[in-house]
């Protein structure tokens, strides 16, 4: 090879190198631009939105609904054979998006006054709060359903009718085969009416109205369980781990950072004020779909700590922290299975199932004890004030489990030849009963499910579990210790 050939070859290599370099640069620039555009597609969504606990919007848990609020995925329904037909559906639904409760509105007002009169930072977001934002939450709102909450239930009703058209149908509704039960709270009653309106508007029904029943024994069992009220709800030591975490270094650092951002004395930012700020960020988004300047008081690490504080409360007050938390839902557990049993018997004998669909509307406090009783979202270790770091991958996250309009649905199938199947769905996604991974996956045999929960089906009596017992004089201290450690 002569000198000219070598030079030509070198030139070719250099050209190819720079061509590849230009292409690589272009691709990197394109990726950056696409990513940048993606993050700005929804500038109204706070970066903290996935940590809002029970104040999270349903669409954040199911992001595909942001594109199409009526979208369904029928591929999640995979019965073992084409012969399988749906014969019964029970849906236990949390009410839709609501206003804050009066207790939290008072805290928000207190924080707003602190920011208005004491904060001195020159940041633009703070200027916005002080000069443009007004305290529009009023005490008469007190947990009432908002317009978004009405639509939460209307849209859920339509989606469930698309998922299960043979059960949730105009014919079944007109024929009285769909039953509606609700808690007495206005947000639940209005959510029930919204669910019904979703169906009547879908089918343009104007010549008939549909009743609902109020049943607090089922949907607000937690108020009527004397042992739960005595040992947990009214017992300060029952939430000891949450209280310790509130006073711990992680939470103290969040409060310090908020005080620094506002440039106010640290003693003004209590845990209640930090919580009020977090709720302002959350409610402004879920109600008004805005990324509020209040969200600037937190970074992602702060939001995770706020989320864990709330999860500690839910864990010890309604979840696995105390045995009575889940046992208080025995009455609802038996109600669900008795309905499915009746449907199974009627179907096997060739009769029409008289309760094709039962829609029951309650609260996060209705759903969580039942999810706990069923053994769902249970971690190997309990949540405590000292294991925040090791619980970062925990299953027990109310932000994922219990958004507004959260729903637990049981669908019973008759697959012929006595083969009944049961599919549980949480927030329109299949879940697997604990201990039944290898027994039909997300649609096990109904008899296997009953065997799996045989101990509860044969026991778990609400009256017995919730009864208060008189203890010997020297047993009181033992009970207090056990409660504080989550042993009872």
Helix content: 40-55%
Any idea what the shape is? Answer: globular
Into which percentage range does the β-strand content fall? 5-15%
Low-pLDDT sequence parts:
20-40, 470-488
For the biggest sheet, the summary is:
7 strands, mixed
How many H/I helical runs?
Answer: 22
Radius of gyration: 27 Å
Instruction: Please give the order of strands in the largest beta sheet.
Output: 3-2-4-1-5-6-7
> Oligomeric status of the shown chains?
single chain
- Distance separating the two termini: 88 Å
Strand/helix succession: HHEHHHHEHEHHHHHHHHHEHHEEEHHHH
Structure overview:
With 488 residues, the chain is of the alpha/beta class. The protein is 50% helix and 8% strand. It has helices spanning 3-41, 58-61, 102-118, 124-131, 147-163, 170-174, 186-202, 216-219, 221-224, 226-233, 240-246, 249-262, 271-288, 300-317, 323-327, 330-348, 364-373, 398-401, 446-452, 454-458, 462-465, 476-484, and strands at residues 85-94, 178-182, 213-214, 357-362, 407-414, 420-426, 429-430. The protein has a seven-stranded mixed sheet. Strand 5 and strand 6 (420-426) form a beta hairpin. Helix 3 (102-118) crosses helix 13 (271-288), helix 5 packs across helix 7 and helix 11 (240-246) packs antiparallel against helix 14 (300-317). The radius of gyration is 27 Å and the shape is globular. The protein starts with a helix and ends with a helix.
């Amino acid at each position: 090879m002569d000198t000219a050939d070598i030079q030509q070859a070198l030139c070719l290599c250099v050209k190819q190198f720079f061509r590849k370099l230009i292409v690589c640069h272009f691709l990197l620039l394109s990726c950056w631009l696409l990513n940048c555009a993606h993050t700005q597609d929804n500038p109204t969504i706070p970066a903290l939105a996935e940590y809002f606990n029970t104040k999270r919007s349903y669409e954040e848990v199911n992001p595909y609904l942001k594109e199409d609020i009526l979208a369904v995925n029928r591929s999640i329904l995979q019965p073992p054979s084409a012969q399988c037909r749906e014969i019964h559906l029970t849906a236990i639904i949390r009410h839709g998006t609501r206003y804050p409760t009066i207790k939290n509105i008072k805290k928000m007002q207190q924080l707003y006054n602190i920011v208005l009169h004491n904060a001195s930072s020159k940041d633009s977001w703070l200027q916005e709060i002080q000069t443009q934002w007004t305290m529009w939450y009023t005490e008469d709102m007190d947990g009432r359903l908002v317009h978004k909450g009405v639509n939460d239930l209307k849209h859920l009703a339509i989606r469930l009718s698309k998922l299960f058209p043979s059960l949730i149908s105009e014919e079944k509704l007109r024929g009285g085969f769909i039953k509606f039960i609700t808690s007495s709270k206005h947000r639940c009653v209005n959510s029930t009416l919204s669910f019904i309106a979703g169906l009547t508007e879908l089918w343009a029904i104007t010549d008939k109205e549909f009743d609902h029943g109020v049943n607090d024994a089922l949907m607000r069992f937690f108020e009527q369980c004397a042992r739960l009220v005595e040992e947990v709800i009214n017992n300060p030591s029952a939430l000891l781990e949450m209280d310790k975490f509130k006073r711990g270094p992680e939470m103290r650092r969040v409060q310090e950072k908020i005080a620094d951002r506002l440039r106010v004395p640290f003693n003004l930012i209590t845990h209640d004020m930090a919580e009020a700020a977090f709720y302002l960020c959350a409610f402004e988004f879920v109600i008004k779909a805005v990324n509020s300047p209040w969200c600037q008081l937190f970074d992602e690490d702060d939001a995770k700590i706020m989320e864990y504080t709330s999860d500690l409360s839910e864990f010890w007050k309604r979840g696995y922290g105390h045995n009575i938390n889940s046992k208080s839902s025995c009455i609802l557990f038996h109600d669900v299975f008795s309905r499915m049993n009746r449907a199974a018997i009627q179907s096997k004998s060739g009769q029409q199932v008289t309760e094709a669909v039962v829609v029951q509307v309650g609260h996060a406090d209705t759903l969580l004890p039942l999810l706990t009783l069923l053994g769902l979202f249970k971690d190997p270790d309990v949540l405590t004030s000292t294991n925040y770091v090791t619980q970062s991958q925990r299953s027990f996250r109310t932000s994922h489990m219990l958004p507004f309009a959260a729903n637990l649905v049981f669908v019973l199938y008759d697959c012929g030849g006595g083969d009944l199947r049961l599919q549980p769905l949480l927030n329109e996604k299949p879940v697997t009963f604990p201990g039944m991974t290898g027994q039909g996956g997300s649609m096990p045999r109904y008899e296997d499910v009953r065997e799996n929960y045989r101990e509860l089906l044969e026991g778990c009596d609400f009256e017995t579990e919730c009864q208060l017992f008189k203890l010997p004089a020297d047993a009181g201290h033992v009970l207090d210790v056990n409660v504080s450690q989550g042993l009872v």
